[in-house]
Write a structure and sequence with these properties.
Strand content: 5-15%
Distance between the termini: 62 Å
Number of domains: 4
Helix content: 40-55%
Number of strands: 8
Shape: globular
CATH class of the largest domain: Alpha Beta
Length: 423
């Protein structure tokens, strides 16, 4: 694609990056086939190719309107288009640049600005989010049905093993996961503890910055990133092997720290190292399959995928979050671990499509989100599973609001299976 960026942005870091990304696009349209919003709306401007055209127009100094902003707002940033793009267009980075510039040009209505400011203030801060969630859980019986379904049930916290191994890895608690699903990280810690790895939390680490970043407060997001780097760095210096993420959305963001802070002389090198150390928990456990086999008493090899007659093969539908399969490009590892642990995975049609959670999308674009949720739940239930598993807390809570089937993080299922195998 030929470009002629406006002088005001041409020589900035954002302009140079956007120009490189735009020039990689060849207008082939393969991306539209996997775009959830294009499939729902059938509008070229609500697909990646159309949005790329809109961003190009903005960067070249042409008129920007609220209509431009609407089409960019409707994007889930699911990055399914990146998976199918033969030219390697980094659409996710381009749309972040475009949204930021468009918002500076056209602003927001007072209501929209308030809503986004409230989301940026509440979601990343457990001191605000947790009490509000607890209030919602208390009042849940009094809430209207649609709203009540969005409030997850409160969970009791399970035990966290004491660090006792020479091998240590860090884990990010995150902002909403400890309140919504506090046992996910505990389950990961207990599984890793069984194979000789201690999972530890760093005091001072907080929100990964994704919510703030994708709500166009990129400066504020950088502050979250720097805070996490400061909290993690002493542990990295002390030999922590990895930074483990049990929320694929957080993993996708932290993998971008090196890119986001590349022009910060005080943090560039540290951020690059943090990104290199960041791994989804599925990547860790997939690499440690031999240790799982040796220590836990059942086979995790393809040659012996059924652990034995005492362990019933529960039927599970696995929803791979967009951040796992498209942003992190991790595919098949969770599914293989679950199959080899004795679960029967049901087929999920259109498994590449987003569930509609997408960070704050379900709040800011509720109608589109509800359509995507219905389609996703129908696809997940089509194979008659007994439960649904996923790898991101946002997807977990969103899908649970649309079905009576239990929805759990897959690492919790693995822990259950390992506990069964000990009896």
């Amino acid at each position: 694609m030929k470009t002629n960026l406006a002088e005001s942005i041409r020589d900035t870091p954002e302009g140079k990056e956007a120009d490189r990304i735009l020039r990689a696009c060849v207008h082939c349209g393969f991306c539209t086939a996997t775009c959830p919003t294009y499939q729902l709306l059938g509008d070229e401007l609500d697909g990646p190719r159309g949005r790329i055209y809109l961003i190009k127009e903005v960067l070249e100094g042409n008129q920007v309107s609220r209509k431009t902003q609407l089409h960019l707002d409707r994007c889930l940033t699911c990055r399914a288009c990146e998976t199918t793009c033969p030219s390697g267009v980094q659409y996710g980075r381009l749309v972040d640049i475009g949204r930021d510039i468009v918002e500076k040009h056209v602003g927001r209505s007072p209501l929209q600005a308030f809503k986004r400011a409230a989301l940026r203030a509440v979601i990343p801060d457990p001191r605000l989010f947790t009490p509000l969630l607890r209030l919602g859980q208390v009042l849940k019986p009094l809430l209207p049905g649609v709203l009540a379904r969005k409030v997850p049930a409160r969970q009791a916290r399970s035990a966290w093993p004491e660090p006792r191994h020479a091998r240590r890895m860090l884990v990010l608690d995150g902002c909403v996961q400890p309140a919504i699903a506090p046992n996910i990280n505990a389950a990961a810690a207990r599984v890793l503890d069984r194979i000789g790895i201690s999972l530890v939390r760093a005091r001072g680490a907080g929100c990964c910055g994704a919510v703030t970043f994708h709500l166009n407060d990129q400066t504020g997001a950088l502050d979250y990133m720097r805070g996490n780097i400061d909290a993690w760095w002493p542990h990295v210096d002390a030999g922590a092997e990895a930074i483990v993420m049990t929320a694929s959305g957080c993993a996708a963001m932290v993998r971008e720290y090196g890119h986001a802070l590349a022009h910060d002389p005080a943090y560039a090198e540290k951020a690059k190292r943090i990104s290199e150390l960041t791994r989804d928990v599925s990547e860790i456990l997939f690499d440690e399959r031999e240790a799982l086999t040796k220590q836990l008493g059942f086979s995790l090899s393809p040659e012996s995928s059924v652990p034995g007659p005492a362990l019933r093969a529960t039927k599970v539908a696995f929803h791979s979050p967009c951040t796992l399969q498209h942003a992190l490009q991790v595919r098949g590892k969770v599914e293989q671990l679950l199959r080899e642990a004795g679960f029967e995975l049901t087929a999920v049609p259109d498994s590449h499509l987003c569930c509609g959670s997408a960070g704050t999308y379900s709040i800011l674009q509720p109608e589109l989100s509800r359509q995507l949720l219905k389609n996703k739940v129908d696809a997940l239930r089509s194979g008659a599973p007994e439960l649904i598993a996923t790898a991101n807390v946002g997807c977990l809570a969103h899908i649970q609001s649309g079905t009576d089937l239990p929805v759990r993080h897959w690492v919790e299922l693995l822990l259950d299976r390992l506990a069964q195998s000990q009896h």
